[in-house]
User: Fold o-succinylbenzoate synthase from Sporolactobacillus spathodeae.
Amino acid sequence: MRIDSITVRLIAAPLKASFATHLQTVTEREAIILEVRDSDGRCGYGEADPFSSPWYSPETIDSCLNILTNDLIPLLSQHTIAQLEELDRAFDPVRGNHMAKSGLIQAVWDLIAKQQKKSIQNLVGGDKKSILAGAVIAATDPEQAIEQIAAYSEAGYKRYKIKISKENDHQLLTAIRQKYPELPLMADANSAYSLADIPHLKTLDDYGLLMIEQPLAWNDLADHACLQKQMQTPICLDESICSAADMKAALRLGSCRVAAIKMARLGGWNETLRAVQLCAAASLPLWCGGMIEFGIAKAHNLALASRAEFVLPGDLFASSRYWEEDIIEPEIQVVNGSIDLPEKIGIGFAVNQKQLDKLTKQKWLFRH
Ligand SMILES: [Mg+2]
Assistant:
């Protein structure tokens, strides 16, 4: 594959509703959009989604821009990518920086899918026609949580995830269970607890949760294995899974009974599919995680979630949940709790150029 040019855009948009966790409240979202163009004028799109500051992951918008423009894009220009596996070798000189790699690798996969006149879904072996949508409730009090659940249930979302901490868990979960005793509910702790909280965490078994996500440290596997042995509720690892090697270690240790796969954190398609294959071999149920993305990353995630290993509804919701107007056309819609997969080639959605231009704060062009 011959690359003609790569455009990097820094975009930003306010969220229609703020997103509160015990670590941070997000009200505006920045992202990096990658456009990789070939000499025939075809364009592949990718999206890098670190947050603006390192509260969730070590990478930030600034660090990603730096690595993309100074390291990854120059490395890509030195390689001819005939096989997608060659992307791994091209980026071998850069350790870590998975979110930066993920955005650029997504764009190359989209371009190659378009060159082969295939959808990304087809390229990655996904065969579902539609996938189940999951809602994320990020609320500061029970009233707000109930309000958000009510709004999502109107569209028939199939799974509800509430952000919790040690300070608000019982208050939020009791209120939700009183109003919605049968709701398919899970809780995401974003590392709000430690092993010293085992007696407290065991009391959460009473709420009939589908799973508890990342209760302990963001970079831990051993303590989660210890906790899982003592909790009935399945533990789902999210932040701890940054590579296929992490996934292998979690499976060997018994650190979780479910995993949330986030392509952004794993460094793009190649490494993500390696982790998925390990989970398939171990029959570990998966779901696709979210990063409050714009439509381009969401389109890649839809293709990922269309694989058979993704048996649980993921953090996949309608464009209109957070954006006044998304950067793809048509926007992602949830109908009766499901999202239909697009049938077009590549990511399957057109880019809304007018909206993309409107959200662009800065733009860099690299010619090869
Ligand atoms: Mg999470």
Summary: The mean pLDDT is 95. The pocket of magnesium ion is lined by residues 188, 190, 213-214, 238 (CB under 6 Å).
